[in-house]
Amino acid sequence: MTDYNPDITERKWQALWEERKSFAAPDRPGNGFYCLEMLPYPSGRIHMGHVRNYAIGDAVARLKWMKGFDVMHPMGWDSFGMPAENAAIQRGMHPREWTESHISDMRGQLKRMGFAYDWSREIASHRPDYYRWNQWLFLRMHSKGIAYRSRRRVNWCPSCATVLANEQVEQGACWRCGSIVGQKDLDQWFFRISSYAEELLRDLETMGGWPEAVVAMQRNWIGRSEGAFVDFSLEAGGAPIRVFTTRIDTIYGATFLALAPDHPRLDGILAGSDEAPAVRRFVETARNSATVSEKLQATGSAAAEREKTGVFTGRRAINPFTKEAIPIWVADFVLMDYGTGAIMAVPGHDERDNEFARRYRLPIRRVIEPLDGSAPDLPFTTLEGRTIDSGEFSGLTCAKAQETMTRHAADKGFGEASVQYRLRDWGISRQRYWGTPIPMIHCDKCGIVPVPEADLPVVLPDDVVFTGTGGSPLAGSRSFVAVMCPSCGGQARRETDTMDTFVDSSWYFYRYLDPRNETLPFRQEVSRAWFPIDLYVGGITHAILHLMYARFFSMVMRDLGLATPAEPVTRLLCQGMVLKDGSAMSKSRGNVVAPETMIDRYGADVTRLFVLFAAPPERDLDWNEDGVEGLSRFTKRIWRLIDTHADAVRQPGAGEAAALGSLQGAALDLRRKAHTTLRRVSDDVERRIHLNTAIAAIMELVNALYAFRPPDEADGRPLQPADRAALREALEILMACLAPFAPHLAEEGWSRLGHDDLLARHPWPEPDAAMLVEQEVTVVVQVNGKVRGRITVPQGSDEARVVEALKGDDHLRAAVFPDGNAPARMVYVPDRILNVVRSR
Ligand code: ANZ
Ligand code: ZN
Prior knowledge:
Layout: H1 6-19, E1 32-37, H2 48-66, E2 70-72, E3 76-77, H3 82-91, H4 95-113, E4 123-124, H5 128-143, E5 147-157, E6 162-164, E7 169-170, E8 173-174, E9 182-191, H6 197-204, H7 212-222, E10 224-234, E11 241-245, E12 256-259, H8 266-270, H9 276-288, H10 294-299, H11 302-305, E13 310-318, E14 325-331, E15 342-345, H12 351-360, E16 368-370, E17 385-387, H13 398-412, E18 415-421, E19 426-427, E20 429-430, E21 440-443, E22 447-450, H14 478-481, E23 482-484, E24 491-494, E25 498-499, H15 508-511, H16 524-530, E26 535-539, H17 545-559, E27 572-575, E28 578-580, E29 583-584, H18 595-602, H19 604-613, E30 621-623, H20 625-649, H21 656-661, H22 665-688, H23 691-707, H24 711-714, H25 721-738, H26 743-752, H27 769-772, E31 776-783, E32 786-794, H28 799-807, H29 810-816, E33 825-829, E34 833-837
Bound molecules: ligand ANZ and zinc ion (ZN).
């Protein structure tokens, strides 16, 4: 018995894969498969979440290689961002040094896992040869009006003197220093993602390869609302105030208008009003109370949850339908950057308006009644209703009333139909050092002038002091700021904002295709050859921002004539989290299991097998040492099989092919098992990406191999040709099936079986159709202990397959899914009984 030493063996095969460039993708693939995993931030250590993410992608990539695809499977580093800059502030280390050393550590860790990456395509976003293309894209976007500058209210930490993203504001305080966050108006750079809202939304319909939950989150985030603008003229004269409403059918119940505190018309309206001082005081408080308008978008209703306060302006507007004069209020629940920043309040039928009206004793009216004639308490909102007390528009269904009243408003010239989106333009300015410098120049004479493309990259300077306070560190670099105006040649200043790091990750997967291109971000031929990405694996935490920005960039690059598809990702897989004792692994909880410790103890293969086997990819996975031990034993069992039989079956015997064609008895059963395993594994990996069940299938094959005892071998005599042939083939198939999951062990076994090519690039064995004819079994279906019927399924079907089959039987479907609901619990005894537990 020879020992299997994972450490030595794994390094050996890793070196061979590297030496033979086994995973180098060609520029132009024959049959291409682009398998992408989200690139990591170089925090210093890979964690179990990375291992899981990358093991999933790697299993698919490796299987695809074996299936004859050219596989693009690259890796890189999302290496700009705050932690490096914080390390600079705290430890005086340059962010570049910190980042580079982390990258080299983490690369080593990933290499120890033996992932099948094409390392020649590695990229890192902090290097000028990458970020210059951010700058290039920015310039192109600027020239098309997609990048623009505008003044916007931002969260501002007075002590860090920096802008904070909404996620960096924790209960109104700065996430880093705890100071109360204020608001500030700042000129910033934006990407006009809002003009792609319609397309971003429409495409979601076609994205069947994305998890429904992600599609729903994106749809919500884009937030399309159909409604109407209505103009309310002012009693005192002057231009009317325009509101956006989705319920024009309730306009007879509009008892006041409400403006956002920062509504631009407010000052004008207040002129001469006795209420002006009170209103100004209110506006001042509202401004300082961290009213983050984007929060509406982040949480859907953060603004709605707060207590609503407001103040009367002393002015009135005329409801264009009723001709009634109604008071104009300023209210903090009205957001300036949605709709028009002004609303008609209908306290009878809108929850928020109602709360506000009751607080300030404003009139509440009923102008809708449900179609069933009931009279629910106010407020209630329904579209299944009809208008009442609405003048000539009374008695219409809500839908009809909306249509008629919108047309009326348009005909009379005081309104029009309108579609609004929640999606806001993407503010990309950051007052940080460790990011891509925005390639713009401020000249007193010429205004804002783009850096000429030929002068790219605008490189981060080194004469920078990192203090953590006082605004952007770049602003303190003389060598950086002082620049000649490209337009007039005079003294000018460089823009010192850097780009949001989400810019880096919005298009990196294109750069992998052409990573050393010095004249373009990438050639269109290569993007045409490889795109769209066939499979993208990553965490659900990126379901909204990163994936929305990535889609937006693809659309923009298409419009710039660079990329071909608008949608970059055909199939998206969001893997679950890795938990320990039920909660996420985190340093603060002290429940982190380091991948390196696992590799040291068990090897990369066992670590991979565990993260793939312990749960289906989309589910959370609870780390448990027993499970790891179990998989370690499994690999030893596999090795023992190889070790026991390899010498006996090493070379194909004469007449082996013929022998395989006429197997009988146990040898035939083994062959059946091997071939069905082949099919199950390739189905589970390629089609369903159910890697845990694929590994379970391999375990069954291992059991079958142990159960197969050719009599002669035990007695030390040569095997019968038929047994030898069956055993040899089954062992080879076992190694092939294992290769996507435990690639090192699989290579070692493959070589022990007498092969001198690499299994990683060996063609996937085609299952023999005759071996796949399934034996059928009858499964009894019980509901709450009572036999409700029987169903015939292929032997070895899993629970899901049995459930599928019973759905095809009307009687059983009705018994198991009355009213269509899933039962509380099902227990499946393979090939025998499905026990269904239904409550009540
Ligand atoms: C009258 C009304 C009556 C409304 C009713 C709703 C229900 P969504 O669906 O999210 O687009 N609204 C408009 N602009 C707003 C702003 N800037 N800040 C806060 N609220 C605003 O919501 C549209 C509805 O939200 C609009 O329709 C308006 O209230 C309010 F029974 O008008 B509605
Ligand atoms: Zn100039």
